Amino acid sequence: MLELTASHIDSLAPNAAAAKNGRGLVLKNKFVKLNVSEEGDLIFGECSGSGKSNYICSVDFVTPENPVSRCNCPSRQFPCKHALGLMYAYADGLTFEKATVPEDISSKREKAGKREETKAKRESGELPPAKPKKVNKTALKKKIVQQLEALDELEKIVLSLVRGGLGTANARTVKDLNDHAKRLGSSYLTGAENELRRLALLLEQDDRESGYTYATEQLTLLNAFIKKGRSYLQTKQEDPELVPDSESTIEEWLGHAWQLAELKEAGRVSESVELLQLAFYTYRDEARKEFVDTGFWLQLGEGKIHRTVQYRPFKAVKYMKEEDSFFSVAQISELYRYPGGMNARVRFEGMIPRQVNNADYDGIRAAAAASIPDAVKAVKNQLKDPLADRAPVVLLNAARIAQTENGTFALVDEAGNTLELGNVYRLPQPTTPLLSLVDPSLLENCAVLAMFEHQMDMGKLVAQPLTLIQGERIARLLY
Fold first, then answer.
1. Where on the phi/psi map is residue 376: left (φ > 0), alpha (ψ -120 to 50), or beta?
2. In the chain, which residues have pLDDT < 70?
3. Please, what is the Cα angle at 361 between 356 and 365, to 5 degrees?
4. Which of 3, 251, 341, 450 has the fewest CB atoms lying closer than 10 Å?
């Protein structure tokens, strides 16, 4: 029997407005027909609208981890509000009459089944694999030459800023940086384009001291990319059929968008994985001109903290699915891992939710680092690579979180080692002050998910708490 919960349906909704509108259809009794298949893997029905004809909608759960919604309404969102309303109606226990699967859906199921069968046969070797795409060596060499020339131009700009000093930067400098960023994008260096725009934003900040501190770090980042990118491209120029580097982030810096098939071929896929989301937030990335939905997930049984990232361009935001907080365990058949460090980006195409149980809470505590020095050492090792993520996230065990005489907070482990808690520049909002507002018992014998950052102006490593976990209680400080 099909099991649906409101939280699962919320996670399928493209955005909060669509979920609200779908719920509204149920509350207003807009559904004039509600049906479920004999097997219980398809719900379908009719919903009255503003026109004479009803909207015909369905949600197919023949593949439970990846339900397919269909509707004849003109909405460009999937699932639309009618499909969402249909699911909310089922979750609320409304009466669904059993009926035969409509012929058009049976036909679509059959075609989808044949595609999956062919795919399975190719993977098992019963059918020859699909022919690999041939590399257009002439086009690739032309692209590499263009990228190398763009790197040379970028190097001139970086050196000019370093020699002149950041204090000489003005409005004209910012304009030149943004203009050059566009040219980098045209030369297939989208990663460098975004980071050069980020440098321009830092130089026009009102808080000059803070802006210059992170601008210096940004210049170091760009310089490291120029050197590594040039070396990598020259090697690729000599061997156009060179396999993409699946261990570092250099390919993404050079504008490569990883396909799931490429990640699978590189061995960056895990099967039968369970993830528990510990933190989630959304922020505006002005450099990328996108909203970024970011989630941090614990891989149960492995203890790794992964990161999911969803980019929604400002211009297309209303047409794209908006991610949200997720409070169940996600059961995933295939988890794809992008190249990266401690919190490698992951992606999955579908999942089946289940309720969090006691063993999962025990798993959180078992996965947390017991020693602050060990956790700090791992963070520092990552920060030695200038192209690595500058704000790694770690799960730590804390004997307590104490407040110092000057009002700041510190995490204390079982051995008495301490870690100063503060606010990280890269997060959209502070959370450390919220520690004084939570239940004091949450600050004793707990696990803490924290984001680290090296603050160059202060010469120290600071961690900002994202989530507190104690027993069966999870308090998310970021939203």
1. alpha
2. 1, 122-125, 129-135
3. 155
4. 3
- At 178, is the secondary structure helix, strand, or coil? helix
Alpha helices in 125-281 (DSSP H): 137-164, 171-186, 190-203, 208-238, 250-253, 260-265
Beta bridge partners of 420: 410
CA distance 157 to 176: 9
**Measured between alpha carbons, how far is residue 103 from residues 98, 108, 440 in Å?**
15, 9, 59
Query: Is residue 215 domain-shared with residue 246, that is, in the same domain?
Result: yes
In terms of DSSP bridges, do strands 352-354 and 329-337 run parallel, antiparallel, or are they unpaired? Answer: antiparallel
Last residue of a domain, one of 96, 124, 152: 124
- Paired tokens of 416: 């008495």
Residue ending a domain, choose from 363, 387, 403: 363
Dihedral in degrees, nearest 10, Cα atoms 132, 136, 141, 143: -90
- Phi, psi for residue 155 in degrees, rounded to 5: -60, -40
**Measured distance CA(94)–CA(90) in Å, rounded:** 6
CA torsion, ordered 379, 384, 388, 390, to nearest 10 deg: 60
Is residue 129 included in any domain, yes or no?
Answer: no
Which pair of tokens denotes residue 66?
Answer: 């990846």
Q: Record the tokens describing residue 61, joined without a space.
A: 């759960």
CA distance 249 to 256: 10
CA-CA distance, 106 to 359, in Å (whole number)?
40
Provide the 3-class DSSP secondary structure of residue 3: coil
Task: Look up residue 214 and give its amino acid.
Answer: Y
Any domain includes 130: no
**How far apart are alpha carbons 117 and 114 in whole angstroms?**
5
- Shared domain check, 35 and 110: yes
In this predicted structure, what is the pLDDT of residue 56? 94
**The pair of three-digit structure tokens given for residue 330, joined into one six-digit string:** 């996600």
**245 Cβ partners below 8 Å, 6+ apart?**
232, 251, 339
Task: Tell me: do 115 and 149 sit in the same domain.
Answer: no
φ, ψ (nearest 5 deg) of residue 382: -70, -40
CA 13/CA 459 separation, integer angstroms = 44
Any domain includes 299 = yes
Distance separating alpha carbons of residues 330 and 307, to the nearest angstrom: 14
CATH code, domain with 461: 2.40.50
Q: Please indicate, yes or no, whether residues 104 and 188 belong to a single structural domain of this protein.
A: no
Nearby residues of 169 by Cβ (< 8 Å), 6 or more positions away: 161, 203
Number of domains in the chain: 4
Place of tokens 């050197």: 227
Tallying the residues shown for the chain, one arrives at 479
pLDDT reported for residue 123: 67
CB 235 within 8 A of CB 219: no
Burial class (CB in 10 A: 0-12, 13-18, 19+), 19: buried
Q: State which residues form the domain around 465.
A: 368-476
pTM of the model: 0.88
- Look at the block and give the residue holding tokens 């310089």: 223
